[in-house]
Design a protein that fits this description.
It contains three helices and no strands. The protein is mainly alpha-helical. The chain folds into two domains: about 35 residues; about 30 residues, no CATH class. Helix 1 packs across helix 2. The longest helix is centred in the middle third of the chain and has 17 residues. It is elongated. About 0% of the residues are buried.
Amino acid sequence: MIMMKLRRTQIYLDEKDMRQLKKEGKRQGCSVSSVIRDAVRNYLNKKEGCVAWQDDPVTKLIGKFKAGETDLSENIDKELYEG
């Protein structure tokens, strides 16, 4: 994880949202603050039109090809978008 300077802030949440955030933090093995930071970052990236690396079609290629593939560059669109 890249260390960034964090600024303290305060928000008010209803009980249901807080329970869900705690549950999600426990599922991910991280703090509620981390879940909130990720959610805010994802929201702002989507609003700006950025694609999170997890959603980038190129990441679907990780581990898909064995060494020695010779036609990847010729078939990249097919591999990315047709699967």
